[in-house]
């Protein structure tokens, strides 16, 4: 009788132990939040984002990230505004365009990812001693009108006494996703390209990197994570967790070697050689393109608007606090 009593008690104890574990597991599953993120393009320029994914920083925060590449600032913003994404990774200028058109639900920048331009000037011919005045009279395959790459490109050209609309044959009617293919097919003497495309072209002998727009233009909030004001208001905990995961990744990138970073992000660039990824990471890291914190400061914001104004694309000046919310970034950094 005592034997059966002990067995019964043991069984009961096991049940009591299993129930809480099962309940905890179910609770953990319930607390996982899916966040849909639309990125403007797939680029090594966004290395900290891929580090946050590959190293599980988002997962540790209880976030399941569904990442979609939307190929172009206009398409990315349309996806966000239409409800096809919760968060967008795109140039801050898009939030200014939306606000200037009038909206009851503005798009708010809450975490910066990159702080310089990410494009490079690629020449069709190899140039040993490049100078900017060599562009005069050439055919320049630029980026989409009103987009951040094109505005920075024009800003830099003007700094070198080149009027892009008078001194060049400027092509701007090629869709963002097809610019590289257009150059490869023979369009243009020069082109403005992101990595790794620029280095791949150099590797294949299709073009040669002669200058960096990032080193020429100074610090700007080139690509930031943003969301509609209503989403941020209703999902403050999610935004905080997202920003904390990003900050961990930014610090990881800052403190690790280019080889470590390349290895971490390689799953997102399966068709790109690891040595090439490392080369591109080193190029971006050495010119300070990766922001080391999610904070978007006022000086950078004003520099962005100066560039937009110089390009004739600034609808009106927007105060920093109107479209930038640094509270989440400041919170995760302080802790």
- Contiguous runs where pLDDT drops below 50 for at least 5 residues: 12-16, 23-29
In sequence order, what are the helices and strands, one letter per element? Answer: HEHHEHEHEEEHEHEHEHEHHHHHHH
Distance between the termini: 58 Å
CATH level-3 fold name of the largest domain: D-Maltodextrin-Binding Protein, domain 2
Helical fraction equals 40-55%
Range of strand content: 15-25%
Instruction: Report the CATH C-level class of the largest domain.
Output: Alpha Beta
Strand order in the sheet with the most strands: 2-1-3-10-4
Number of domains: 2
User: Looking at the structure, what is the overall shape?
Assistant: globular
Structural Rg: 24 Å
Total DSSP helices = 16
Q: Can you give the mean pLDDT? A: 91
Q: What can be said about the biggest beta sheet? A: 5 strands, mixed
CATH homologous superfamily descriptor of the largest domain: Periplasmic binding protein-like II
Number of distinct beta strands? 10
The chain-level structural class is alpha/beta
* The CATH architecture of the largest domain: 3-Layer(aba) Sandwich
């Amino acid at each position: 009788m005592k034997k059966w009593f002990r067995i019964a008690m043991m069984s009961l104890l096991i049940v009591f132990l299993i129930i809480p574990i099962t309940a905890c597991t179910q609770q953990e599953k319930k607390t996982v939040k899916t966040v849909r993120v639309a990125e403007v393009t797939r680029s090594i320029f966004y290395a900290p984002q891929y580090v946050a994914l590959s190293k599980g920083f988002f997962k540790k925060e209880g976030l399941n990230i569904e990442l979609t590449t939307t190929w172009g600032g206009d398409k990315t913003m349309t996806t966000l505004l239409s409800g096809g994404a919760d968060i967008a990774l795109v140039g801050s200028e898009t939030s200014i365009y939306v606000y200037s058109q009038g909206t009851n639900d503005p798009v708010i920048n809450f975490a910066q990812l990159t702080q310089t331009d990410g494009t490079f000037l690629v020449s069709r011919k190899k140039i040993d001693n490049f100078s900017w005045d060599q562009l005069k009279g050439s055919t320049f395959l630029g980026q989409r009108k009103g987009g951040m790459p094109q505005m920075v490109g024009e800003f830099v050209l003007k700094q070198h006494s080149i009027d892009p609309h008078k001194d060049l044959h400027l092509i701007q009617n090629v869709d963002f996703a097809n610019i590289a293919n257009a150059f490869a097919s023979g369009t243009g003497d020069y082109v403005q390209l992101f990595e790794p495309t620029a280095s791949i072209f150099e590797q294949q002998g299709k073009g040669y990197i002669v200058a960096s727009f990032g080193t020429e233009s100074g610090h700007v909030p080139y690509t930031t994570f943003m969301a509609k004001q209503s989403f941020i208001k209703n999902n403050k905990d999610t935004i905080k967790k997202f920003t904390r995961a990003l900050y961990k990744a930014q610090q990881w990138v800052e403190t690790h070697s280019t080889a470590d970073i390349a290895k971490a992000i390689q799953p997102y660039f399966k068709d790109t050689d690891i040595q090439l990824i490392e080369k591109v990471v080193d190029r971006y890291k050495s010119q300070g393109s990766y922001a080391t914190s999610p904070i978007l400061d006022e000086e950078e914001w004003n520099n962005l608007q100066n560039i937009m104004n110089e390009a004739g694309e600034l609808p009106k000046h927007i105060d920093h606090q109107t479209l930038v919310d640094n509270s989440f970034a400041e919170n995760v950094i302080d802790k």
